[in-house]
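User: Show me a protein chain along with its predicted structure.
Assistant: Here is one chain, sequence first, then structure tokens.
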Amino acid sequence: MIDKTEDGYGGNSRLKRSGDKVDYTEDQTREIIKCIHDPVYFIKNYVKIVNVDRGLVPFDLYDFQEELIKTFNDNRFNIVKYPRQSGKCLQYQALTTLRNKKTGEVFNITIGDFYERMCKERKDNLLSEK
């Protein structure tokens, strides 16, 4: 049996394993430093999203998204008041910590599971009102 981990992380030769040494050229080093200091540049040049019609495409930021990213990068503390569906997102699997107000119990739950739970609660409440 072939040990796939020798090919790269998880058998994928395009993914480096922990501890792998990489020799970067001067140009690559400059590019990495530029990406570290300018997240908008990094997103515009290296982040791709899947478009239903066009497949894998570059992430094309709106002006307000660029401004928000620059603000987050330049300022340690931020308060943002944004409406729903304004071009920001949360991962369904992202963990959050909640506390039950009645019992004081603290627990972790994914954003997706929390959303599902709130939808079910709302539906149950609507049904009980009828």
